[in-house]
Amino acid sequence: MRIHKYLMLHSVVLAFLLWTPHTLFADISTLERIAEAERKVSYVGVRWKTFSSSRGSRTFEEVVIHQSADASYRKVLSVVGERRSLEGSQDRNAHRDNNRQDDNNENRRDRRERTRDRNEWRQIRNPFPEKEIQLIAQNYNLEVSPSTEKIINYETDILTITPKFADRPTKRIFFARENGVILRVEDLDAEGVLRQMFVYTRISFDPATVQRKWEVFEKEIKPRPPRSSSISLAKAEKVLKTKPVQPEYLPPGFQLKDVRIIKSRENDSILLEYTDGLVNFTLFEKTGDPPHIRDRDRREEKEIELAGTTVYKRLFREADTFRWSGAKIHYFLIGAIPTTEMQKVVESIIHNKEKEK
């Protein structure tokens, strides 16, 4: 009897040990399959995209031409709907008399952006760089399931990416069962509110069609020169003429993703980008004169004190921004992670700089 119970227990434990890695491996393989499709499958299509922020919401239709992960472009065809937030409208009304010139400038900028969106092709970033897939798997639960929903006549499966840590977003990816291409994406915030999504309404994987469209669109596509380029920490130290200050504290699961340089007519800036695979926050460091801040932005800032230093905090869309100055370096931090976490990052940067004195 004891031997029988032991064998049963041994079988259960063995089955669990074999099953768990297989499930995890299967879900990572699904993400890897989707990433591989981004690299290898060419297509051309039209999709609807919508996003919402503290400023309001916008829905538009855009055409996409995708040759590879590095040659993928989109252009707005039409704006389907646009709505400014009630809170934003009330803020503008409250400051209308004092900020009429700022509002006019803001409206002109919005009009220029809309015109540029409709006339310019924008490059689409690779959603899942190969080096970040394992990081996503470490910080998020991956669950794949069949879907009964067809998207433009393609059978689909769903990859749901949910956070292992609190206050992180969720992503739902509907991809073609046939080839792994993403047909629909839903981005939900930490409260489960849909913030952004897109869905294809037309798509073609026919190589001849894609090539024909590419030959037409290629004449219009004029990629913008990159605003920044990757460098080493050693090179960043030469640019700043001092060692770049990194945060002592990082939210769980985050690590340094990239170090980049932004060229300017005055002093070049260094940016350190951190990620957990899906969510990023970025630290800008610059020497010389303080960066110019628009009057409108200054009025939206709140002055706080962190680690004995005056810091200016502002909400930009769904991200918190913090700016402050040290003895030689001006800092700017932006990221869509909880405010308490961002403040810990700021404090750790200040403490780390104090240690180096």
In short:
With about 350 residues, the chain is an alpha+beta fold. It has eight helices and 17 strands. Mean pLDDT is about 85; it is low at about 1-5, about 10-25 and about 85-100.
Q: How would you sum up this structure, described in words?
A:
This protein is an alpha+beta fold and 357 residues long. It has 2 domains: 23-217, outer membrane lipoprotein receptor (LolB), chain A, CATH 2.50.20; 228-356, 2-Layer Sandwich (Phosphorylase Kinase, domain 1). 34% of the residues lie in helices and 39% in strands. It is built from 8 helices and 17 strands. The chain has helices at residues 2-40, 86-94, 96-119, 133-139, 207-217, 233-240, 295-300, 339-356, and strands at residues 43-53, 56-68, 71-84, 122-123, 140-151, 154-163, 170-176, 182-188, 194-204, 228-230, 255-262, 269-275, 280-286, 302-306, 309-316, 319-325, 330-335. The strands form 2 sheets. It has a 9-stranded antiparallel beta sheet. Strands 10-11-12-13-17-16-15-14 form an 8-stranded antiparallel beta sheet. Strand 11 (255-262) and strand 12 (269-275) form a beta hairpin. Helix 2 (86-94) packs across helix 3 (96-119). The longest helix has 39 residues, at 2-40. It is globular, with a radius of gyration of 24 Å. The relative contact order is 0.11. Mean pLDDT is 85; it is low at 1-7, 9-25 and 86-98.
